[in-house]
């Protein structure tokens, strides 16, 4: 089969083909082939956190941006090539996703102890779980056995990933496309309990919400004064602010902030403005165990997203393994 026909076939599999039912991902996948896989990833995430606390939030975010675009297949990690525009420079990712080097470090460590065994896609999922645990959040058993994609699509990422301007209505329908419920949406948004975002992502709501020339009325006025100082009109869009009041601790502070009009992103605050999502915000703000339970359910469901496309175990998370196309097709 020619390369162009192969690529054509790949492009015919659109996002509708993503399914959460096919893969039998399971917890013990590497227990024979690489028993210390999870421990190895945990050590790397631990070291990353000691170096820079934010990096674990950045790593956790990778699961969302990977799994929503053609399944959890580490497509996100592929660098651009002359023949392929990957996802790293997609609208939601450029100048924003970070800490790819932490995944590289975990991959290097795993290639030392069990070469060719652990997929980059599984590393992302393990690392995201560890990031949550090491930040004070819940532990859960991750399902493993994913393959790494042979390609990536900047266009698919551009078409799928939500903007910080998104409202709850559009987020509900996006999540619905992946069989994720309204409760999943609100719980998974609670990942913004850790990490930071850029002024670029909020200046519109500070100065010109929905083209009104006015700030977002849902913003607590005191909080708005603080954000105006951090992000003056015409200022540096790369300056960052905390996504909640305790950005290094995975807790339900994010939801308490939303109730008080102190959500950082429009997509955050609108979860409290909109009656369809407000009750979940209230429940999670009042009961951290309810949040943790729903968050774990959501992460597992999101981690089940699979494109059903052929895959491989990459040796380097940034590059597809080099071998003839004909062999790839026999997988
Ligand atoms: C519900 C829709 C979501 C929207 C619209 C959204 C949007 C964003 C935006 C705009 C940023 C900051 C980007 C920047 O300014 O550079 C961000 C950061 C972040 N997002 Fe989301 N996000 C969503 C859901 C999620 C989910 C489901 C997860 C993970 C499970 C997640 C994890 C994170 C984390 C941890 C950060 C901070 C990253 C860092 O500090 O580097 N987000 N998100
Ligand atoms: C959602 O569930 C339906 C019905 O069970 C299934 O046909 C579809 O493939 C699922 N979609 C995703 C993205 O998992
Ligand atoms: C939500 O956003 C969508 C897409 O931008 C827009 O068409 C819709 O009017 C908005 N809905 C509400 C309730 O603001
Ligand atoms: C606010 O946004 C609207 C619509 O996008 C635009 O026409 C207007 O010029 C903007 N106003 C300012 C002050 O930037
Ligand atoms: C942020 O920094 C990057 C890299 O230095 C630059 O290309 C980009 O334009 C900046 N973005 C904003 C919103 O200022
Ligand atoms: C919080 O939720 C947990 C788990 O669902 C439940 O067992 C507990 O009773 C709730 N606590 C309160 C104070 O409602």
Automatic annotation (TrEMBL):
**GO cellular component terms attached to this protein's record:** extracellular region
Stated EC number for the protein is 1.11.1.7
Disulfide cross-links? 34-114, 67-72, 120-317, 199-231
One GO BP annotation of this record: response to oxidative stress
Annotated site residue numbers, Transition state stabilizer: 61
Q: Which reaction does it catalyse?
A: 2 a phenolic donor + H2O2 = 2 a phenolic radical donor + 2 H2O
Q: What is this protein called?
A: Peroxidase
Residues covered by the Plant heme peroxidase family profile domain: 24-321
Where does this protein hold Ca(2+) 2?
244, 246, 251
| The keyword Protein biosynthesis is assigned to this record | no
> What main location does UniProt list?
secreted
Cofactor details (free text): Binds 1 heme b (iron(II)-protoporphyrin IX) group per subunit. Binds 2 calcium ions per subunit.
| Organism annotation | Actinidia chinensis var. chinensis (Chinese soft-hair kiwi)
Signal peptide region: 1-20
């Amino acid at each position: 089969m020619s390369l162009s026909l192969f690529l054509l076939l790949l492009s015919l599999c659109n996002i509708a083909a993503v399914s959460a039912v096919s893969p039998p991902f399971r917890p013990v996948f590497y227990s024979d082939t690489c028993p210390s896989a999870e421990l190895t990833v945990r050590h790397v995430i631990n070291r990353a956190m000691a170096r820079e606390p934010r990096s674990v939030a950045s790593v956790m975010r990778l699961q969302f941006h990977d799994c929503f675009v053609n399944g959890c297949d580490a497509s996100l990690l592929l660098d651009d090539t002359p023949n392929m525009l990957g996802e790293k420079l997609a609208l939601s990712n450029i100048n924003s996703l970070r800490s790819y080097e932490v995944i590289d470090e975990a991959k290097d460590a795993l290639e030392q102890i069990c070469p060719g065994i652990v997929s980059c896609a599984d590393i992302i999922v393990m690392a995201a779980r560890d990031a949550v645990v090491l930040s004070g959040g819940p532990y859960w058993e991750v399902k493993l056995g994913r393959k790494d994609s042979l390609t990536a699509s900047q266009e698919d990422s551009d078409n799928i990933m939500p903007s910080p301007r998104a409202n709850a209505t559009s987020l509900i329908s996006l999540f619905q496309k992946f069989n994720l419920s309204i409760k999943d949406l609100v719980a998974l948004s609670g990942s913004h309990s850790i990490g930071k975002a850029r002024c670029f992502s909020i200046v519109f709501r500070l100065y010109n919400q929905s083209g009104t020339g006015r700030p977002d009325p849902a913003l607590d006025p005191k909080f708005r004064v603080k954000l105006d100082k951090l992000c003056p009109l015409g200022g540096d869009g790369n300056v960052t602010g905390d996504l909640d009041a305790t950005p290094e601790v995975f807790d339900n502070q994010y939801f308490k902030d939303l109730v008080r009009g102190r959500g950082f992103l429009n997509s955050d605050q609108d979860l409290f403005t909109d009656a369809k999502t407000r009750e979940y915000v209230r429940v999670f703000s009042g009961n951290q165990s309810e949040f943790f339970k729903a968050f774990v359910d959501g992460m597992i469901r999101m981690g089940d997203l699979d494109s059903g496309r052929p895959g491989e175990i990459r040796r380097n998370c940034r590059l597809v393994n080099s071998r003839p196309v004909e062999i790839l097709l026999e997988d």
